[in-house]
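step=encode ok
step=design start
structure_in=
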């Protein structure tokens, strides 16, 4: 299947594995890229720019296909060494960067001078237009269904994707709620040139996370996610567990007096314990409503092949059969 996204990134299928904390390591990215999609290493999951450089080298040893590096720009006092991270990406020969969080304009000249394609993750049309304005090659449009940070507008993809198609000139992919061939065809019908899957890729054999995490995703339904940190206007969709319910209770009790320090135990530094060690009650971890559509743990190759087979069948058989 050829789309603007497959042509832009030099990939076989219009499927991207988005950056995910403590998931996007070389094993994950290489498995997706080898299966014809675009795999992604998550830069901030590595402890240093030097560790990122080593991870990029490992991924280059595992695949000769394009893969991306996610760089998330965080509002923090002790910012990561972004110049060194960007240099590691350039030196590693990475062809695609997925940016997220704050406006990436400060690194765009360096990435563009190196010939790197940039796709920025946005939760609104206005942010997507800004990404286009500063020179991003594509946008990942993240609907309210998504795991992680959906923004504060609460617009689901059935509205957000057509709105993006109405406004954007650069290509975009859907993100949030994407799981299978139905997702891909629906996204393309609304104007997207592909889709970004996050939570769905965690429940694959190659995902470098504890089996407890994969089992939790398969067991969950679309009713098992929660929105936390809404009073702080830093909304995050997470899988429910005891720690998350305690967090929400604190939010209810403290109301507009809530400070980040009040919930730090449930949200800060918990990812290694959950993703690596399988401590499923350790705290809040990003997870999309798409868990309601995830019922197995295939290989990345099996997942992508099945998705493309479903998409082609829908387009060539089911939809074509409805034409008068």
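sequence_out=
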């Amino acid at each position: 299947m050829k789309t603007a996204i497959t042509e832009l990134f030099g990939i076989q299928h219009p499927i991207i594995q988005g950056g995910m904390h403590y998931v996007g390591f070389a094993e994950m990215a290489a498995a997706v890229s080898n299966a014809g999609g675009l795999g992604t290493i998550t830069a901030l999951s590595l402890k240093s720019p030097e560790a990122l450089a080593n991870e990029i080298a490992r991924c280059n040893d595992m695949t000769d296909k394009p893969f991306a590096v996610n760089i998330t720009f965080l509002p923090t006092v002790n910012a990561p060494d972004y110049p060194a991270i960007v240099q590691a990406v350039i030196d590693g020969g990475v062809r695609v960067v997925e940016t997220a969080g704050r406006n990436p304009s400060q690194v765009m000249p360096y990435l563009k001078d190196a010939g790197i394609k940039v796709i920025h993750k946005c939760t609104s049309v206005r942010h997507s237009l800004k990404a286009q304005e500063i020179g991003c090659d594509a946008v990942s449009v993240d609907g309210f269904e998504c795991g992680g940070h959906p923004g504060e507008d609460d617009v689901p993809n059935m509205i957000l994707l057509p709105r993006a198609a109405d406004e954007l000139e650069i290509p975009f992919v859907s993100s949030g709620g994407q799981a299978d061939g139905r997702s891909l065809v629906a996204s393309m019908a609304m104007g997207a040139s592909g889709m970004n899957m996050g939570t769905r890729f965690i429940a694959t054999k190659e995902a470098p996370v504890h089996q407890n995490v994969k089992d939790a995703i398969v067991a969950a339904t679309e009713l098992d996610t929660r929105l936390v940190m809404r009073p702080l206007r830093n909304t995050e969709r997470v899988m429910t567990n005891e720690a998350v319910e305690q967090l929400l209770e604190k939010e209810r009790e403290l109301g507009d007096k809530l400070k980040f320090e009040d919930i730090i135990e449930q949200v800060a530094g918990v990812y290694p314990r959950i993703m690596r060690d399988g401590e499923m009650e350790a705290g809040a971890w990003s997870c999309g409503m798409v868990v309601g559509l995830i019922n197995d743990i295939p290989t990345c190759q099996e997942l992508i092949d099945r998705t493309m087979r479903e998409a082609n069948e829908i387009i060539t058989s089911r939809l074509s059969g409805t034409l008068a």
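step=design ok
step=annotate ok -> The chain has a mean pLDDT of 96.
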